[in-house]
Fold:
Amino acid sequence: MTARGSITLLVLVFGSIFFAVLVALSGYVLAQNRVQDVMRVRAEAFSIAEAGLDYYHWHLAHFPTDLTNGTGGSGPYAVTIPDPQGGTAGTATLAITSNTACGQTLSMDIASKGTAAEDPSQSVTLIGRYAQPSIAAYDIVTNGAMWFGSSETINGPVHSNNGIREDGPNNAPVTSAVSSWACPSSLGCHGETEPGVFGTGTHPELWSFPTPNIDFQGIAANFSADKSIAQAYGIYLPRYSSGNANGTAYYKGYHLVFNAPDATYPNGSVTVTKVTPAKVSNVFLFDTSTYGTEYSLIQGETNPQTYPIPSGCGLIFVEDNAWIEGVIPGKVTVVVANVSNADVTPSALIHGNITYASANGSDGLTLIAEKDITITPDSPQDLNINGVYVAQTGSFARNLYMNSSHSGCNTTYEPRNTFSVHGTIVASLGQNETWVIGQSCGSEPDAGYQTTANLPDRALATDPPPFTPVTSTDWQFVDWQQQ
Structure:
């Protein structure tokens, strides 16, 4: 082979290699350009889908009951989204679903499919839930002062319109509406003026004060309306007790035990009995800070009846005291209040564990009491409750049970082990943790629940049971996700 032939062969070989590399590089560059184009178009589609949600937010602000985009017909509804230059950026296609219970709209799910005009083959769908923000977004809310001890773990937002002493682990915001307050002896102080939130808690960087009040008048339940709706769509239990607070008969009521769905009751049920209570003496009462008696033990039960939970309205109105426990089926709201007798203010009593039939977010409980929500003396050693608990004019608490000489604990009821809440506690007079756990009975150090854990329920925050109190009457997006 001549030198010229060798050079020609080398040129061909290296030329082929160079051409192959060039083709591969060109293909890579073109592919990357295509990826960038797709990403850019999908980003535009995302923005268009957001614009669709914003558009319907605006529409509902002007036409609150219109779920048909002014058409009167079924969707989906195509909405043209303009660009800044006066052209068309793309189209948002809206599908709107109303979530109702007891004949009322609780929330709306709006699915917005964004498509860019540049490339209709690429789309992004966002789903937003439009509702009034629920009190269930919090872990604890109270009008009164609070003290969280070293054994109390807080994992969700806590707010007080008064002061907070935080000595335990907190992994979420702790907010107070006051800049300073006088910490009383009941919270382990001696009247000192303290910042809105103070203590030896683990994450003071999450403390904030002063912050806006949460209006307890605004979140108050409308008992008269709730009663009427329960009579029409749900379950209504009339007053069984009688007389006034000075008589034993005043503390009668109902025992509600919830049951998971079964073949007889596919939507679940509640078994209701009429209760005659027993008196408990030598009780240090959380609402008066004095020794007295309470009527929280169930002495006798009569007239058992099992009611199916109505599929379209899980509202139960009890116009009397109510002992609550069991397995909650679906979304249920229990209102314990009396609108027929001005001098009667019933309370709810937690008698046992309150759990859910399913753990997928489809079940939930809201318990609203006109006065207190009390944990009974014979509650389980390890008490687990799920749901939203609202003591509208009173406290969420457990009394302190002493022996007859007031020198030590009543060992039948003290102490208890662990108390776990998966949900929200709202109390007008304060969530009196100092009475629920870790108190002393005279010379004996241990009373109440020794450890507690509070964990908010994200599912209830965006999809609560009907008539759960809201923190604002303004409708807004409380949740959204990309499909």
